[in-house]
């Protein structure tokens, strides 16, 4: 069956509209040929059904004509009552009269200056988010290196941070891979691109985004567990956290891929207005909602513990240190997504792009800053090892000087 037109990008919806019309017309032509073949040679000469690139002209006998209206595409053609006619002659179909460009008046489209301004805008956006993701990737790799190199920093909390950082690295890499696959060749029609590489890049991107949100959920869950079960070993929960952070996104993406393959396997799967987009969108909203509840509960528990006279000053400082980063990230990561989720995908496109691409590209850097570079424990460990290294260097220099003197 011909692909159904979805509520995709307006430019792509035009392409898909004509693809649908062409597929329907070709199906009619195919059935007519099968019918004529079964009935034997044609009894009456005439013009066969034809697709002219815009409209489908049904078969008529010689001497008759056919009339069609302008294509019914909103925001492209003005609603015109004019009809385009073609006559069936002995030589075949005549040319459309009046021509499409006269009968079907185009809606007022932006000038060349507007087109150039849009092109410049998207180029600027790409430069900004490329710089943002590059900065984030550098900071995240450095943070993972710091947590991995220093033995005193090896604990469940920092292990969860490393997984969280890795999800950001995957997200940044997925953006670069998606750009390389979708926009490497300007001659490619992105509306009709339907290659395995393209779909794989989109599937990997969706997985990295889901993993990103679910590892943020794990950060909130770990903080809540730490406040609830103070004297319980947190190592017993690490595999559950890994299952939630990596397993749930994998299961979700697999369901989405199978669903798209079975019911909506057209294009590059990057149409966010498709009904099946909710297979991805609903789990993300669920993670954000759960994080919001954790945010409220952790805030309540923190206030109770700080006000409690039984808890010493050192414990209060520890609770504040553990809480401030996660409590800052939970609303920061989820609020804009919830706001945009309430509106259709074509509403507020510029603002959505700015938040998700430009500001979102620096989230990895912010996470590395909060969880690693501004972490007092990390700073103390770096200073301690830096002091040991300086003492070792001074000792080596002294030994060399002494050897030279004695020699």
Automatic annotation (TrEMBL):
It is a multi-pass membrane protein. GO terms for cellular component: plasma membrane. PROSITE patterns: G_PROTEIN_RECEP_F2_1, G_PROTEIN_RECEP_F2_2, G_PROTEIN_RECEP_F2_3, G_PROTEIN_RECEP_F2_4. Residues 24-108, 125-375 form the G-protein coupled receptors family 2 profile domain. Keywords: Cell membrane, Disulfide bond, G-protein coupled receptor, Glycoprotein, Membrane, Receptor, Transducer, Transmembrane, Transmembrane helix. It is found in: Cell membrane. Gene3D superfamilies: GPCR, family 2, extracellular hormone receptor domain (4.10.1240.10), Rhodopsin 7-helix transmembrane proteins (1.20.1070.10). GO terms for molecular function: G protein-coupled peptide receptor activity; peptide hormone binding. Its main location: membrane. The keyword Nucleus does not apply. The chain crosses the membrane at residues 127-150, 162-183, 213-231, 238-258, 278-298, 326-347, 353-374. One of its GO terms (biological process) is cell surface receptor signaling pathway. Pfam families: 7tm_2 (PF00002), HRM (PF02793). InterPro entries: GPCR_2 (IPR050332), GPCR_2-like_7TM (IPR017981), GPCR_2_extracell_dom_sf (IPR036445), GPCR_2_extracellular_dom (IPR001879), GPCR_2_secretin-like (IPR000832), GPCR_2_secretin-like_CS (IPR017983). CDD domains: 7tmB1_GHRHR2 (cd15271). Belongs to the G-protein coupled receptor 2 family. This is VIPR1 protein. It comes from Glareola pratincola (Collared pratincole). The gene is Vipr1_2.
């Amino acid at each position: 069956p011909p692909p159904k037109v979805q509520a995709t990008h307006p430019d792509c919806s035009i392409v898909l509209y004509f693809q649908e019309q062409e597929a329907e017309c070709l199906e009619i032509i195919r059935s007519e040929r099968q019918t004529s073949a079964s009935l034997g040679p044609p009894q009456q000469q005439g013009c066969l059904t034809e697709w002219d690139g815009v409209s489908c002209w049904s078969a008529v006998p010689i001497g008759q004509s056919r009339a069609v209206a302008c294509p019914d595409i909103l925001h492209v053609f003005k609603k015109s009552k004019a009809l385009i006619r073609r006559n069936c002659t002995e030589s075949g179909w005549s040319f459309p009269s009046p021509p499409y460009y006269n009968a079907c008046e185009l809606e007022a489209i932006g000038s060349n200056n507007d087109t150039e301004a849009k092109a410049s805008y998207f180029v600027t956006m790409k430069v900004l988010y490329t710089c943002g993701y590059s900065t984030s990737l550098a900071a995240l790799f450095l943070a993972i290196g710091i947590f991995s190199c220093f033995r005193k920093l090896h604990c469940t909390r920092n292990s969860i941070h490393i997984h969280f950082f890795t999800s950001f690295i995957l997200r940044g890499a997925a953006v670069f891979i998606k750009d390389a696959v979708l926009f490497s060749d300007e001659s490619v029609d992105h509306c009709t691109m339907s290659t395995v590489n393209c779909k794989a890049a989109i599937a990997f991107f969706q997985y990295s985004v889901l993993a990103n949100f679910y590892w943020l959920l794990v950060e909130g869950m770990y903080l809540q567990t730490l406040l609830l079960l103070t004297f319980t070993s947190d190592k017993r929960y690490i595999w559950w956290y890994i299952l939630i952070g990596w397993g749930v996104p994998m299961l979700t993406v697999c369901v989405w891929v199978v669903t798209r393959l079975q019911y909506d396997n057209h294009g590059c799967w990057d149409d966010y207005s498709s009904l099946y987009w909710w297979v991805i969108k609903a789990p993300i909203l669920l993670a954000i909602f759960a994080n919001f509840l954790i945010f409220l509960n952790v805030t309540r528990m923190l206030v109770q513990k700080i006000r409690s006279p039984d808890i010493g000053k050192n414990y209060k400082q520890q609770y504040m240190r553990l809480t401030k980063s996660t409590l800052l990230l939970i609303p920061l990561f989820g609020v804009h997504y919830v706001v945009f989720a309430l509106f259709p995908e074509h509403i507020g496109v510029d603002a959505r792009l700015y938040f998700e691409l430009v500001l979102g590209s620096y989230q990895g850097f912010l996470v590395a800053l909060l969880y690693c570079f501004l972490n007092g424990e990390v700073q103390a460990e770096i200073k301690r090892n830096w002091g040991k290294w300086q003492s070792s260097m001074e000792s080596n220099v002294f030994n060399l000087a002494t050897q030279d003197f004695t020699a």
